[in-house]
Amino acid sequence: MQSSLHRNLVSCDSGTTLRLMLMAVAALMVILFAAGCAAPPPVPTDAQDFCPLPAATFAGWFQSGSVSLNGVVNPANSLNGGVPPTPNCGFYQWSEQMFMWLTSPAPSAYGGGAHIFDSPAFFDVSPPDGSGNRTFLAHSAGLIRAFALRDAQRGPHNLPVVADRSGKLLEFNPPNANLKPLVRDPSGQQVEIAHVRLENGRPILLDGQGNVIGAQHVATATVVPAAGQTVSPQLIVQKFLIDGIPIFIDPSLAVIDVEQGQAGDSSVLEAQTAANGSLVYYATMVNDVYAYFLTGVKDGAITTTTPGQFPTTAADLNNTIAFATAHGKGSPPFPDPNALAIEVKSSWVVAAGLPNLSSYITMTATIPTYNQSNPNLWTPTGQQTVQLAMVGIHVVGSTAGHPEMVWATFEHVGNTPPATYSYTSTTGPKTVTQNTSGTWLFSATGSAGPFNCAHMFFAGPPTNNIQSSGPSTGCPGPFTISPSDTLRSEPWGLDGSNASSNTEVISMNSHVRGMMASGDIRGNYVMTGATWTIFGSPPSGAIPGVGTNLLTNTTMETYQQGVSNCFTCHQNGLNPNGLSHVFGGLKPLF
């Protein structure tokens, strides 16, 4: 198959010949091959067909019944047969179709908008307030008002999370001025922390007289589940911010050792200066089915086939339609009800200055602004409305038999170089070696690392400052507020050596992008994987889920690659409250 991303062979200085890809947009050629030996292809075109996708099936996705340039695509029928029966390929096929649907031009039935997710059929979701609560915001086509610098990851109790040094994610209560930062010294006495300094990336605690406090430090902390409990409880620790350094203390008054480079509410990502040096901004949106389902459930008007789960059956959907109609949504109330509940989280950079802007999906948005005079501390100054370019998107949705939702992610091909990975080609096993040559949005040309080191973090309420990060394991630091070098460490959602799984994802990518019309803007985004659970069971374990269960997006989970996935934070017995990014803390529409 001739992919729209296929290129001719190019020789490097080493004499090694690499098969390169033809980018859908000619301008992107310069980006990938600007310096030295050409970078590996975004998607190999010679993978064995581990995930078949007939041309007639792909054409049937389009509303017109035939492939067309940037044409409108129908959503997968999540109510009945939305996921074809063959794992894992059926889930990847669902993910690809949903991505193409969301990024299609919005038909009139959606009420306008450049893309379906940019239409009044979707709702913006506000960033969490100081209590972790969010609200629905009616979406105006062409403008998202709820962009945030960083939306802290939330755990089962709707609290932000932090990774300890073992990689375990812990929920924490934000700083509270009414609480004293008390720890226990070796004698068991409680001592208040007055000051903190960092040595080799670890905090040194000082009392009011400047003496070092020999407080107990633990790499992680565990809680034994109660008898009969099937879901492990999440340990909740308390965060303090002392001398600008975050400290986390568990209920026993021991200090939890965390990576200081990731110790804020959330690390902040910045594009390379050679591009435009933009910070990365985030937005969360849900579709109309999701919004009315949530409102009906929280109002006690909707009960699902299985209590506490997202809609997956005709009865669930009919209850949601009836509720929306009764509250004046119209008849029919939804343009695409069989898509079921959809949640979208996307990442964006400022469009101005991008050398290949025409290869990005763009949107106007209101974003925060900062005083950048101090290289170690940026303070908020207000907001501005600008054009943004999409660099990543999580596509999440419920489907028949899967109330836990299928979680898929897509990235722009120019984001980051991939680490070494293997796959099965039509001529046998192949390995694509890590290569940072060329120009990338989030990695310096030819970088040798260190990779995925957070240079700064978002302090969160009440200051909402951006602060530079100290050193952490493998990251020399301290850093200034600056771009970091990012690597896609699990290029196709699992360990790079898993050739079979890699080939499945690559094969589906190759089919979809190869059959798109030349120049279709969606061809500049690749699926790096999708995850779900077996038979839709509640996720459990350190890294739950199947499919590509090391799934992360380098623009959203940049500094947590390889230690978690979507389900790591979002696991609980009640799926909407435990799995959705926003369900638990989101207020009803009315």
Describe this structure in words.
The protein is of the alpha+beta class and 590 residues long. The protein folds into two domains: 372 residues, no CATH class; 103 residues, no CATH class. 13% of the residues lie in helices and 25% in strands. The chain contains eight helices and 27 strands. The strands form seven sheets. Strands 3, 4, 5, 16, 17, 18, 19, 20, 21, 24, 25, 26 and 27 form a 13-stranded mixed β-sheet that branches. Helix 3 packs parallel to helix 6 and helix 4 packs across helix 5. The chain is globular. The N and C termini lie far apart (51 Å). The N terminus is likely disordered.
Compute the number of strand runs: 27
The coarse silhouette is globular
Per DSSP, the total helix count is: 8
Main sheet overview: 13 strands, mixed
Uncertain runs are 1-37, 222-233, 260-265
- Ends: how far apart? 51 Å
Structural class: alpha+beta
- Give the DSSP E fraction (strand runs of 2 or more residues): 15-25%
Helix content: 10-25%
Using only C-alpha atoms, the radius of gyration works out to: 24 Å
Q: What is the number of independent domains?
A: 2
pLDDT averaged over residues: 82
Keywords:
13-stranded mixed beta sheet, disordered N terminus, 590 residues, 27 strands, alpha+beta, 2 domains, four-stranded mixed beta sheet, 8 helices
Task: Summarize, please.
The protein has 590 residues and is α+β, with helices and mostly antiparallel strands. It is 13% helix and 25% strand. Residues 1-37, 222-233 and 260-265 have low confidence and may be disordered.
